[in-house]
Structure formats: structure tokens, C-alpha cells
Here is the input.
Amino acid sequence: MMVMWVKSRMHSRGWRLQWLPRVPLLGVVALMLAMLLHVPDLHAQSTTGTIANSVINALTTKKDSDPEPQPPSDVIEQLEGYMHLGMVRNLDADPTGRMLLTSSEDKTARLWDTQQGRLLQIFRPPVDPKGIDGKLYAGAISPHGKVVAIGGWTGWKWDEKVSVYLMQVHDGSMLKRLTNLPSQVNDLAFSPDGRYLAVALSGSNGFRVYRVSDGALVGGERNFEQSTNRLVYAPDGRLAVSSYDGFIRLYNTRLQRIRKVKPIGNARPFGISFSPDGELLAVGYRDRLKVLVLSADDLSIHYQPDLSSLRELGSMHLVDWSKDGTYLYAAGTVSIGGRYVIRKWDKGGTPSGGVVAALDLPVGHDTVMDIAALAKGGIAYVSADPSVGVLDSRGFPRFYHNRPHADYRGIGSRFQLSRDGSLVRYALDAGGERLGIFSFPELGILARSQVETYGPMQSRKGLSAQLSGSGQLTIQGRHAVKLEKDEKVVSYGLDARRPAVAVGGNSFIALANASGAYYWKRWLGVAAHAVNLTQDGRFVVAACDDGVLRWFGVRAGQPVVSLFPHRNGQSWIVWSPKGLYAASEGASGLLGWQVNRQKRQAARFTAANKKPSYNRPEHFRRLLK
Here is the structure.
């Protein structure tokens, strides 16, 4: 009877009964007591609702001590060079051939116009500012071109599981997540009708297939022997999957495995591609110079395109067919005369008793990471430089975007500092063919300077260090610098006065003593290709893989200032840890700040040119003096 009375009172005050089942028994008792003790005042606003709601809220609100894990909320300095700043790992083209999606280790995916190379959209997933979470290894465009899927090492930091993000093309926002994946995402593919998304996983985790409309898991296969590399849909909806376990697997439209074949024993298949009619399946191998064309019916070897002219120059592990089936393309680690190439076979490379025409198309200066044939002819590619490009149907460049940042690999002694570190000399290209000079007092790039500068000291009396080919640094011939798993040393420099060594790692910078112990160590997330110490003993400076020159205080390794000189040799921007900046004319958009929101939302990015009050040139002119 009392319950019915409470129900009546609740309805009379417009409360919703659906709250009651969520309230524990003690909460119901407290709520009823609050109502029984209340004497309404017809001339004053009732407080019963306030009391009841307080009880309900206290009992139904999740405890602050146990919130749902979310991405870090740090403000993250982010370079924006209108091009990728890290290795581009994956490429996909929409069915019309109008758009390209590129996914990169710089933690962004980008959508490009295929005709002029115009940047259409940037997709920014939640990231870990102090780790690898957010690096993208896979991406796919839906058949209707309105949604993209991106994934890689994404979401593990806060969920301890990996997620795939579905993002909207028109504004870059996140539509939904596909969650609870056990390992890194290596590849993504939409079904021809756009209803399903296939996800290739690293390790022995096989692949999964999700229904796009509601994110439901509808199929897949687990427990592969090694990583799943690529997956591709045939026009009729069959699915082919390659794995480093050597097998090519074929599934019907109900996701039932109908074939499992190892075309070559003890080999590692990587790229796969159905011919446009769905009758053939091309396969490229990662560990040898081999491309096979299989029957898409029983996966038997149909023929082997000729690669004899390339001898053992590398692998052609990426494959794709032209959309009319006339040409077969392959690419990978093969370079000719210093240029990496895409091989293009006429007639799909089919042996016909005569010589099949083959053309090698030069495309870049680093490993080709992915290729995609376009609907109206031509081929798109991405490389590790990073670079993004498109060749037309005749093999001529339609557009080519290269890295916007300087390449400090092999910079060595050309990385020089003035005594106080206020002037720096650096190389713009690997090997040091083009050099740059930046002066903080003059706040700009100089054509020449008479200021004396010093390169990294590699040896001196009383202090020595040796760097092995495996990335181990030994000090004084006997003290090895301690490294964590997957860490390597790539550069070092000796202090001119003290028994200290600046250590540049593949993801960190540190200062060590003569016994190899660290005074301090800071995570960078990128390689420090060169390190140098100022002669006055105040700063350690690193030339990093993302093109940034970074100054750190010697005492505690605190960041002092960063400089990004654009590869064009003219544009630049400098900034402090507090967000102050100065830039050459038109270059203030090269830097911004990214902030994660909820894990179900894309990150927010604000360019420096949107914060003109932070532009403080005079601060930097006197900063290092």
C-alpha cells in the first residue's frame, strides 16, 4: 500500500517512475521517509523534489573514484605541415577514384583530392601524448564516401583494448567506435555494399567483421599462427585474407572459410588484390621477390608475373589491379638508381608465349608502403619518407607531396651550435646537401653567419663513448647505458667540460654520467638523429625525426624552446613550453595545440594563428642569451 502511495505522489509531481528500479532498497526507504515527513506549503515551492532527487542522484551517480577511463586531457603541441609528419602506413581510394585516405604514424589520417592533391579533411583520433597510442596503421573509405574507418594502436592506453574509429568525412567528427579488439589493427576493408567492415589484427588474433550500422560483431576467425596482414573483398562479397603464417584464406559471403592454401612453403604473403572480375587473386610476398596470381576459386597458382629483371633488389609485396583489369601493379622495397619503383605489367602480367610488357615507374626515395589503383586510371602510392603521390594512366605524376620537415638522418657533424646555443646550423636533407642557419637573436633564417659553431663532440681526453651497430652505447669502454625494451641509441655527444654524455635514442633523449647512469631522461616519441651540447654547458639540443630542433636544460632536462624549420628553407616557427610562439610570415599555422575530448569523440585542434596574443617575438630574441 505504501508503494502505491509513493507511486501516486510521484506521478502527481511529474516524476518518472522509471527511476525507481535503479535505486537500491535503502534508497527507496529513504525516499519514502522524506515524502512522509514533508508537510506541503501551498504558498512556497516544495522541497520534496529536491530532497528526493538528491537521494536518487547520490545513489545512482557513478562514484568519482571509479569513472569510465578516458584519454589523457593534456594539451599537446602538434605540428601541422599540411602533410603527414610521420611514416604513412596505409592508403585507400574511394570507388569513384576522387578521394584518397592516408593513415600515418603521426597519429592523423588525411583525405586528399586525387586530381590536384588538395587536402580535404584531417581526422584526429584521441591520442596518448607520451606514448604510441593514436598511431594509425590502417584506413578505409566506405563505398558511398561519407565515412572512413581508421585504426592502429588506438585506444589501448585507456581501455586496455584497441578500437577502430568510424569518422564522418564532412566534418572529421567521430561517428562510432568498434571496441574490445585484442591487438593492433593492421588493415581495414569495407564490403562492396558498405554494410560490413573487416578488421585485420596483429599477433595470432586473426580478423573480425562488424556490421557498420550498429557495430555488431558478425564473424571472423581467431587463432591464426601469425599476424594478419591484409584483407580484401571481391566484387561478389567474398573475402580473402593474407597472414605471415604463409596461408591465404578465402571466405564466402556468409564468412565461412572455403579455402586455406599455402602457395609457397615457409614464405610470408602480404599484399592481396582481386581482379575486377573476381576470377584472379594477386599475392605479393614480403620476404622474397615474388608475386603470384592465384585462381580466386580454389587458390591454385595460375601464373607468376616476371620479375627476373629486378633480380634480388628487394620485395614487391604490395599488389593491385587496374580497375579495368588491364594492368597489374606491384611495389615495395625495390629501388633502381636510388628511386623506389612501382612495376606495371600489361595484360596483368599473363604469360602468353611472348614477352609481356612491364614498366618500372620511379616514385620516391623511400620504401613504398601502399598502393591503390584509381577508378579512372592511374595509381596512387604512399611511402615511408613520408610522401603521397598519384601517377596518371601513362605513368606521369599527377601530384606529389613530400615531407614538410627537414630530414636529419645522417646529419652528424653538420649539426652545430654557437657557444651559447642561440645560433644553430642544420641540414635540410639527409646527407646534408642543403644547410640552414637559424639565429634566435636575429629571429630568423640567415644566408650566412660568422658566428663560430661547434659540432657534437665524439671523443675528448678523459671521456669516451662507442655506439654499436645494434644501438648500444658504451661509455669509457665498459659502462653500457641502460635501455628499456625496444629502445636503441642512435646518436650521442660529449660534454666539453663535465663527465657527461648526451644520449639520443629512437624515442628519447637523456644525459648520462661517465658510469652510464642517467642524470635525467625524457620521452620524445621520435628518434633524436643527432644531439649536441652547448660549449657553455647550459643546453642539450636534439635534431629529431619529426623535423623539430629541441633545446633542453642540462640540469634537469626541462624543455626550453623548440624550432621547426620548414623543408622549403624559408618558413619557420619557434615555441616555448608555455605556448608562446614566433614565426616567419605566413608560417604561424605550422603549429597548434591538440586536446583529447571523450574517447567517443575526435580530438580538438587549434592552430597557433588562432591565438595571436601568444605571438611574442621579443621573448625568443633574448631567450637563450
Notes: The first strand starts at residue 75 and ends at 79. The radius of gyration is 29 Å.
